[in-house]
Design brief:
- This protein is α/β, with parallel strands linked by helices.
- The chain has 2 domains: 172 residues, glycerate kinase, domain 1, CATH 3.40.1480.10; 231 residues, Rossmann fold (3-Layer(aba) Sandwich).
- The chain is built from 16 helices and 12 strands.
- It has a 6-stranded parallel sheet with strand order 3-2-1-4-5-6.
- The longest helix has 15 residues.
Length: 416
């Protein structure tokens, strides 16, 4: 039925990515032109592609600026695209944030701001709060990314050391109304978490941010902890009525990607089973857990077990990898060479962790092939070195920029 398992799994991932492209899902959310100006702003790995699609469908003049990741640029005719660093912010991101704030000055009620938001926007749209520096923000970002904190936890901290996140960008647009079009990369599609919610009310507190840092034993830089303890912030949530004139539309999310893959599997004669679009937890543990879960579906073969969500890695070793690669290595060990299981796990933005690869594949031959070339999978998993494990086996997935981001995609194929 499936002549090449790896090709089939690759096609499943491709179908998922196609379904959440801005060009595939933005058209029905395009508003009518206002009486005044239309200013487009935004941030994220999909923001440039979103801007390009917006230009195609919008029926009036546009100006504005969006910021995307280096390498994710899409040439636009009217909207300026700036490329900055992700996942660690840089000075270019600071410059882009200042330009975006300038774009929305002196607007009127007759104008319209369209904000294009997607995953990655938190690091790309960066503007340190007063008395803090970009160097301090870089350090806290790196510590949060390496300790295993969730996106929600990381963005809670980011919002409280920023001059633009947590609803502050929307407030800067007043009195103009704001329409946010978002591609979700967070579990639960919470608008306040996607790109740290620059256009929606902030429900989090400085105390929550401090507790997150305490949870992960992050004590540096001290300047950020001091700032959070002393901050006298006028929370955006204190003026909820202001946000009533702002509209938020989710144009793509993980569920859409999984359903597209499921439809493809069904047409191929494989029974699709969506386990969960919001799996969270430590990647290594989830790999072993799903290896055990596979046994429950043995009588459903041939079938495809699909899942999305957000896995994390607590980096204690010296290797290289990402949540999807680490998940797959643990899954391979948990399956122990089962002859009827193959799998792929990738991040839909084309970047797993700090690598330039989206993820990897495993097949029934993975552990045997590793033994032949002298790899020790248990040691490499403990050393957080899943990247080099899969690189040696020529099992990495390289997509280049996908121009979208709806978080993790995992597909486990049970097929004799």
């Amino acid at each position: 039925m499936i002549s090449n398992r790896r090709d089939f799994l690759s096609a499943c991932f491709d179908k998922a990515i196609e379904a959440v492209q801005p060009s595939s899902c933005i058209a029905k959310f395009i508003p009518d032109p206002p009486r005044g100006r239309t200013v487009v702003i935004g941030a994220g790995k999909a923001s440039a592609a979103m801007a390009k699609s917006l230009e195609k469908y919008f029926k009036g003049p546009l100006t504005g600026t969006v910021v995307t990741r280096y390498g994710y640029n899409v040439q636009c005719e009217f909207i300026n695209v700036i490329q900055a660093s992700h996942p660690i912010p840089d000075e270019t991101g600071v410059r882009a944030a200042k330009i975006i704030l300038e774009e929305v000055q002196d607007l009127t009620e007759d104008d319209l701001v369209i904000c294009l938001i997607s995953g990655g926007g938190s690091s790309l749209l960066t503007l340190p709060a007063s008395d803090l520096t970009i160097i301090e923000k870089q350090l806290i970002n790196k510590k949060l990314l390496l300790c295993g904190a969730t996106v929600s936890e990381i963005n809670t901290v980011r919002k409280h050391i920023s001059r633009i996140k947590g609803g502050q960008l929307a407030l800067a647009c007043l009195p103009a109304p704001v329409l946010t079009l978002a591609i979700s990369d967070v579990v639960g599609d919470d608008p306040s978490v996607i790109a740290s919610g620059p256009t929606v009310p902030d429900r989090s507190t400085c105390d929550q941010a401090l507790k997150i840092l305490e949870k992960y034993e992050i004590t540096e830089p001290k300047s950020i902890l001091k700032y959070l303890r002393s901050k006298k912030k006028v929370e955006s949530k204190l003026a909820p009525k202001v946000f009533n004139k702002f509209k938020f539309e989710m144009i793509a999310n993980n569920r859409m990607a999984l359903e597209a893959s499921a439809n493809f599997a069904k047409k191929s004669g494989i029974t699709p089973i969506i386990l969960d679009e919001g799996l969270q937890g430590e990647a290594k543990k989830m790999g072993y857990d799903l290896a055990d879960e596979v046994q429950k579906y043995i009588n459903a073969k041939p079938c495809l077990l699909l899942s999305g969500g957000e896995l994390t890695v607590n980096v204690t070793g010296t290797g290289k990898g990402g949540p999807n690669m680490e998940f797959l290595l643990a899954l391979a060990l948990g399956l122990n060479g089962r002859s009827d299981v193959s799998a792929v796990a990738c991040d839909t933005d084309g970047i797993d962790g700090f690598s330039e690869y989206a993820g990897a594949f495993i097949t029934p031959e993975t552990l045997v092939s590793a033994q032949k070339v002298g790899l020790n999978p248990d040691f490499m998993l403990a050393n957080n070195d899943s990247y080099n494990f899969f690189k040696e086996l020529d099992s990495l997935v390289q997509t280049g920029p996908t121009y979208t981001n709806v978080n993790d995609f995992r597909a486990i194929l049970l097929c004799d």
